[in-house]
Design brief:
By secondary structure, the protein is α/β, with parallel strands linked by helices. The protein is 35% helix and 22% strand.
């Protein structure tokens, strides 16, 4: 059983080209739940994910990012990007195991790891395509492979950067429900530009706006996920989220 901690971001600042993307931003992500982050393009959503993942360095004196269990975040985070990042020359199965191969600088992997990769492909409904190459898959299938690769990493914290934004509505709904199912028990931080996606999967929803960016709205819908977004209370919450997204601080208008 994964022991998934919460994440505390305290007084985080990020300076780019002489301007603060966010300044002394604080945020608490609950343990073993899916948190969603909404915000306009360019507000710093992806940068925040990259800071948590350690892809961007946190400058000395610019705040801290910690796990609530006191253990380091390093080595406990999986990252699912907006694009599937599948290697065209590798089979579906090899793409799932790719991180393991690169970390250990070897092409051959253990039988146990191959079986684990097959199990995750079965979870996402693609075991029968294990030997196929990515160019034979639809976009939705490619994202399922990327999800299987994320599961294979077996990390308690999963960061997701708009992974289904390029999909049609039906495929998006299917993958949202699947992701909720297979990531249960993990601490998930899911960046999206779609209020309905956030309301379908998010157990805590935050809206990041302004310049420098701040959390201007947050909500924790009570219904279990994935939610039916046709419900009247969800439609009302969508209106609130859109209103929060449209807010502009004095810094925006200057």
């Amino acid at each position: 059983m994964l022991n998934a901690p919460g994440i505390d971001l305290k007084r985080i600042s990020l300076l780019y080209a002489g301007q603060f993307i966010f300044e002394e931003l604080s945020l608490q992500l609950p343990a073993a739940k899916c948190s969603c982050l909404l915000g306009p393009s360019g507000v710093g959503k992806s940068s925040l994910l990259q800071l948590i993942a350690g892809i961007l360095p946190l400058a000395a004196g610019e705040g801290e990012i910690t796990a609530t269990d006191g253990a380091p975040l390093l080595g406990r985070v999986a990252y699912m990007a907006q694009t599937d990042l599948l290697m065209p020359w590798a089979s579906v199965l090899d793409n799932v195991i790719l991180g393991e191969k690169l970390r250990h600088c070897r092409w051959r992997v253990s039988k146990d790891n191959k079986e684990r990769a097959r199990y995750h492909l079965q979870q996402v409904g693609l075991l029968d395509r294990a030997n196929d190459k990515p160019d034979s898959l639809s976009q939705g299938m490619r994202q399922r492979v990327a999800l299987a690769r994320t599961l294979f990493e077996d990390k308690p914290i999963v960061l997701m950067d708009e992974p289904f934004s390029a999909l049609d509505v039906v495929r998006k709904l299917e993958l949202q429900a699947l992701t909720v199912e297979v990531l249960q028990g993990r601490t998930v931080f899911w960046v999206t530009h779609d209020p309905l996606e956030a309301l379908r999967v998010g157990q805590a929803i935050f809206v990041l706006t302004g310049q420098p960016a701040r959390i201007h709205y947050q909500v924790e819908p009570k219904e279990s996920v994935p939610r039916d977004v046709r419900q009247s209370n969800i439609i009302a919450l969508e209106a609130e989220l859109i209103a929060a997204l449209c807010q502009r601080t004095a810094g925006d208008l200057a």
